[in-house]
């Protein structure tokens, strides 16, 4: 269920690298599936910051087929703690070859299939295990660079789902 969605069309995509973006949506929190756990200290700090600001500044990123969260686990959990029912999501085509999964941990080898499986089965990786990068030409850019500011009031995200 999506409460609000903006579909990306070819004509609205000025840059070739954005073709992996499928839509922007205000989505019920409960449909999203994290693949990583969160750091309690970072979560506490971020929850206080978002609560104090009264707005969510950036959306999260998730796969449009599975609802597996790719970036924004701490924001997702912070909104849950703040009583929000909705969250802004940039949905991407995780199968797109321009999206590449890397790891912050040298001891772990990750694949996209492993990320999706962890999210679908609820077997979470430790905090900050994965980082999702986007291939732009010959450069890699963190996927968070595509999270444009939204500044949505928490009061709007706490509203009941119709």
Keywords:
162 residues; Conserved hypothetical protein from pyrococcus furiosus pfu- 392566-001, ParB domain; 5-stranded mixed sheet; 3-stranded antiparallel sheet; 10 strands; 23% helix; disordered N terminus
Overview of the molecule:
The chain has 162 residues and is α+β, with helices and mostly antiparallel strands. It has one domain (4-157): Alpha-Beta Complex (Conserved hypothetical protein from pyrococcus furiosus pfu- 392566-001, ParB domain). It has helices at residues 40-53, 73-81, 112-121, 154-157, and strands at 4-7, 21-28, 55-56, 60-63, 69-71, 86-92, 99-103, 130-136, 139-142, 152-153. Residues 1-17 have low confidence and may be disordered.
Please outline the helices and strands:
Layout: E1 4-7, E2 21-28, H1 40-53, E3 55-56, E4 60-63, E5 69-71, H2 73-81, E6 86-92, E7 99-103, H3 112-121, E8 130-136, E9 139-142, E10 152-153, H4 154-157
Parallel strand pairs: 4-6
Antiparallel strand pairs: 1-2, 2-6, 3-10, 4-5, 7-8, 8-9
Helix pairs in contact: 1-2
CATH topology (fold) name: Conserved hypothetical protein from pyrococcus furiosus pfu- 392566-001, ParB domain
Structural class: alpha+beta
What composes the largest sheet?
5 strands, mixed
Unreliable stretches (pLDDT < 50, length at least 5) are 1-17
Question: For the terminal residues, how far apart are their CA atoms?
Answer: 10 Å
> What order do the SSEs take from the amino end to the carboxyl end, as H and E?
EEHEEEHEEHEEEH
Global Rg = 15 Å
Q: Which band does the percent of strand residues land in?
A: 25-35%
Annotated CATH homologous superfamily: Conserved hypothetical protein from pyrococcus furiosus pfu- 392566-001, ParB domain
Number of helices: 4
Number of domains: 1
Q: Tell me, rounded to a whole number, the average pLDDT.
A: 88
